[in-house]
Amino acid sequence: MPYDPTKTPAWEAVFFAALTVAPFMFGSVYPWAYGLLEMAVLSALLLLLWRGAWAKGARQGLWGWGLACLAGLVFLAGLQLLPLPPALVKLLAPGSYAMWQPESLPTAQAAPALLPLSLYPFATANQGLLLLTYLVATVLAALATRRRQGARPGGTPFSFGLLLGVGFLLAAVAIIQLGLDAKAIYGFFKPRHSSQFLGSYVNYNHFAGYMAMVVPLGLSLLARDLFRGGRRANHGRMLVVGIALVVMMAAVFLSRSRGGIITLLLVMALQVLLLLAIGRAWRINRYTVGLVLCLVLLLGISSQVTDWSRTLPRFQALFLQNPTDNLRWKLYSDVARMGNQLPLTGSGLGTFSVAYPAYKTLQRQGLFNHAHNDYLEYLAEMGWPGLLLFLGFAAWVLTRGGRIILLALSRRARGDPALIERALLLTGSLGGVAALLIHGLTDFNLRIPANALTWFALCGITVGLARWDAPRSGD
């Protein structure tokens, strides 16, 4: 079916609707919320298949070893659900086998005749379905980006404006709530298990994680319009994007999330260095100066409208504390030991809260639902195979986007304005991908469905933008 750029196919509408509402449903952390996301994304796939809208040009080069890694991760979660002979479970995962024994189970229960590798099969099936949803979202985002780029080469992907609009609204809600000293999300919902909500998110760290993924998109659009110069620059869009960036950065600074603030500033610094390098390679140095001035202005305004009395004390406490006394440092030590004792299979996707108590050495009471480190949590729940598959997927996405940027930086690429604009856009989607990977060192954004869905969509957008048909560029 030929693609009509004036119409939005049904599958794209459903997918983009899911991407839009996900963060507003309290980060989609509740079963009803992420259940709706799963139904929407999988329905979009069915609509795509039903309408036969698989454009051959959009599919070319989409499949690769990175998607195979992500599919392997879903397959591995399925394997953890299979009932296996106890002797095989004891061989593959002696730690899990010990927990299935009668002395480790309630007195009224006996060890099953066949054992799964997962210590909590329901949670593994639940998270496995989410992982499948993210795989589908990656493919849909890549296809949507390629279809639109094929119809309007050099145009702005619809997802950029969509995610920027969502980020601006979320930031505005957060700032208004802080100004009114609101005691509930949207004025009526107060999470029972958390008093640290911000905006529509149950936890301020995950709010900051979403913002750190979206801000780079705005910077890339701002740089592209600035580097175009003259009549081609959309000054109205530059103003709108600039306002959105100020509001989103101010919201991050107000969030008190140390990991979110550090991640945002680090990613912005790296992105600006890339943008300046691209500008220098294309001999548009006067516009690179303008970009630096714009960034300084944006940071200055956003920092001036921020009440730092909420944020600075948390950084001061971080620097005054001995790193080895930090609660997360001790938690990481426990989780690393847990991963080393279950290196091949892990405890089962989504089972951290069930498996961790057996390895806990912390004196602090309470339930730890997550490892506060995405990588260690993958290691603990899916073993080294799961962690390596995830890292393989992330490396594939970064490599594909990075190749286009390197091509734009090379001397042989000069004289091709379409390529430079594509590279500028890629700094935005790659910046969003890198933001979650960096923040994942100290938090668990990949276990927050709204953030995970957005991140995998950004991965798909990067893959979609990374296709280039210029000679010798490859795919």
Kindly describe this structure.
66% of the residues lie in helices and 0% in strands. The chain has one domain (10-81, 116-321, 368-465). The protein is built from 18 helices and no strands. The model is unreliable at 471-475 (pLDDT under 50). The chain is an all-alpha fold and 475 residues long. It starts with 9 loop residues before the first helix and ends in a 10-residue tail after the last helix.
Bulk shape: globular
The percent of residues in helical segments reads 55-70%
Which structural category fits the helices and strands? Answer: mainly alpha
User: Whole-Å distance between the termini?
Assistant: 23 Å
The tally of structural domains comes to 1
H/E element order: HHHHHHHHHHHHHHHHHH
Could you tell me the radius of gyration in angstroms? 23 Å
**Biggest sheet character:** none
Low-confidence segments, given as residue ranges, are 471-475
Strand content: under 5%
Provide mean pLDDT, rounded: 83
Number of H/I helices? 18
Strand tally is 0
Oligomeric description of these chains: single chain
